[in-house]
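[Target chain]
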Amino acid sequence: MIDVVLFRSGDHRLALEADEVLGARGPAGGLPPSGYPAIESLFGLPEPERRARPLLITLTGPQRAFVVDGPLELRSLAPETIHCPPPILLRSSALRGLRALAFDEAGLVLVFGARARQPRGASARAR
């Protein structure tokens, strides 16, 4: 089993390996986090127009903080549900850090890796 932290980005379900996530917190004083890049900037995805439940997630490495759409869910993915992305997808895609495609009872999960990734056009603040 591989433990992941699952969250949404618009209509997509995304995941990071759980050992890459140091923590998450809700908005202070009920206000959404500001001044932090969106997690989508890390992976080359478009940022959703609106976030239902914005959270601040802190990742390993240089402890970068990003805004994600909650809720977050810790899940274990069975090895047989995880597949390598096809090489043609990796070559032709603007997605950065895509490590695997997983399929569960709710459908497709895009599994990303955050290590050694830098968002384009955004300066990640350390927390």
